Amino acid sequence: MGSKRVLIIDDEETIQTVVQFGIRMTAGWDVLSASSGAQGIQTAQAEAPDVILLDVMMPDMDGIATLKALQSHPGTEQIPVIFLTAKAQTSEKYQFNRLGVSGVITKPFNSLDLPEQIAKILDWSLGR
């Protein structure tokens, strides 16, 4: 399996760093990062990542608005999106699934387990 490219869109730099570290260390995938929904959309259009990890609660443009913008653009509509969120009640998960996200990973998470969680959600082989 070739190297996957993951885009993390989160307004918290510490989350970006932890995600990058965990994914690079355990899976060797490339990780791109963006600090806002608008920046994430631009990065997704320019870089065409294999998956987007998207924070739900961000200032200005939240994850749901970002998801809808990604889904409405021909260059990014096919990219799977996984929400990263502290809000993971059954009702929210139901709402997220209706929006067309590929999955939900709840915060806090273990960054070293992220590649395995992503692979499970997207039915990827980790090739170990």
UniProtKB/TrEMBL annotation:
Residue stretches making up the Response regulatory domain? 5-122
- Which segments of the protein form a coiled coil according to its record? none
- Modified sites of kind 4-aspartylphosphate: 55
Which keywords has UniProt assigned to this entry?
Phosphoprotein
Tell me, which GO biological process terms does this entry list?
Answer: phosphorelay signal transduction system
Q: SUPFAM superfamilies per the record?
A: CheY-like
UniProt keyword Phosphoprotein, yes or no: yes
Protein name per the record:
Two-component system response regulator
Q: From which organism does this entry originate?
A: Stenomitos frigidus ULC18
